[in-house]
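We emphasize that the prediction below concerns an isolated chain of 179 residues; any contacts that depend on oligomerization or on bound cofactors are therefore not represented. The input was used exactly as deposited, without trimming of termini.
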Amino acid sequence: MSEMKKDEIAEDQAQINEANDDGFDETEALRAERDEMRDRFMRALADSENIRKRGERDRREAEQYGGSKLARDLLPVYDALRRALDSAGDEQRAAASALIEGVELTLRELINVFTKHGMEPVVPKVGDTFDPQLHQAMFEAPLPGTKAGDIIQVMTEGFMLHDRLLRPAQVGVSSTPKS
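Result of the prediction step, given as a token string:
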């Protein structure tokens, strides 16, 4: 081989090596870009899935608890009907039996509507233990025969809306009896 051919071959080989180096760098750059795009895609996919789940949860909560303000506003009506029935004595019941029956039917229908929409009463009994998650202590008094933390009087019933406390039951609680 002539010297000129050897130089041309060497030059061609150098160009091939240079092209391979450039190609190698370009391939690595493309792989890095692909990996970055894949990562961004996976993050965007995860974000959209989280947004979908959050929206579904918010929709369920709005469906279950959206009426809580109205429900809370109806509780004084329930209390007034309950007090009206509790205050009516035997003499008044006999004199106005139709009126008393109408109030009882109204109260029963209100309770049915509450139940239909997931509202359940929290009805503590005298002697139950005070639970700050469900009850609100309105007063504390020593009462012989009880221990500290026992409910001694129930003023108003509480209500749960599904699994959330809508209104705590208002109760009187026994304090430690003094000896």
